[in-house]
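Lab meeting, item 3. Inverse folding demo.
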């Protein structure tokens, strides 16, 4: 009876919905496949994710080792669940295998969370760089408009000021010369 209870602990994976993330994410799909003992599908999901084109050039380089580690963890979980002759082992050894199984499963979830965090960080970096480019374009446009006003003002207003001041100086000179009788 004790052996049957220990073996059934392999099948008792307590998974919090918050821990596996949203549906159709890498973490959700891989964890669900592992829980359902569909290891080959979990591994193919991880490899497909790694081979998928990303809009972030550094993405593959950053997540490659994490995804490969996740594949190793899936294989380790498979080996622990399908350990041959687990019924013939002592209770201590069975418990050790079960504990390692749970450690691998928790580590798999942590690695998949890390991959998602890297993906989110790259999205944030991309948004920040986009904001910087937009700000630079807006500032350049404002600078060009201000420069255009200054140049237009210098050309149009300065010539008007020159002509007006020239007319006033000529009128003053004419007034002075007529009063002096010259």
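The presenter then showed the designed sequence:
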């Amino acid at each position: 009876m004790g052996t049957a209870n220990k073996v059934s602990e392999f099948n008792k994976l307590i998974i919090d919905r918050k821990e596996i993330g949203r549906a159709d994410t890498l973490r959700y799909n891989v964890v669900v496949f592992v829980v359902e003992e569909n290891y080959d599908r979990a591994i193919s999901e991880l490899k497909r994710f790694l081979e998928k084109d990303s809009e972030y050039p550094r993405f593959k380089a950053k997540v490659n080792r994490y995804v490969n580690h996740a594949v190793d963890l899936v294989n380790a979980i498979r080996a622990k669940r399908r350990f041959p002759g687990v019924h013939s082992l002592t209770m201590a050894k069975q418990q050790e295998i079960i504990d390692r199984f749970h450690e691998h499963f928790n580590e798999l979830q942590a690695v998949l969370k890390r991959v998602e965090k890297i993906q989110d960080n790259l999205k944030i970096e991309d948004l920040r760089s986009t904001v910087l480019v937009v700000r630079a374009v807006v500032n350049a446009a404002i600078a060009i408009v201000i420069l255009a006003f200054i140049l237009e003002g210098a050309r149009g207003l300065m010539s008007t000021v020159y002509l007006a001041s020239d007319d006033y100086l000529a009128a003053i000179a004419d007034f002075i010369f007529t009063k002096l009788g010259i």
